[in-house]
Specification:
alpha+beta
């Protein structure tokens, strides 16, 4: 890989890391646990800290 490609890749990765590092200040994370038909499900509910508005929802299941 060329030097400039390495430098560009490292710069993009560092920018991404710095952007993600600041994300935690604007959100609060609440643990969510429930049980249904003998199966338990655990997860996290991530909400904006200073808003009372309705939120769009995204659910990831893996």
């Amino acid at each position: 890989m060329n030097r400039w490609k390495k430098a560009l890749t490292i710069s993009i990765l560092l920018l991404f890391i710095f952007l993600l590092a600041g994300c935690n200040e604007r959100y609060r994370e609440l643990p969510v646990d429930f049980e249904y038909a003998g199966n338990s499900v655990s997860g996290s509910l991530v909400l904006p800290k200073n808003s009372q508005e309705p939120y769009p929802v995204v659910i990831f299941v893996h």
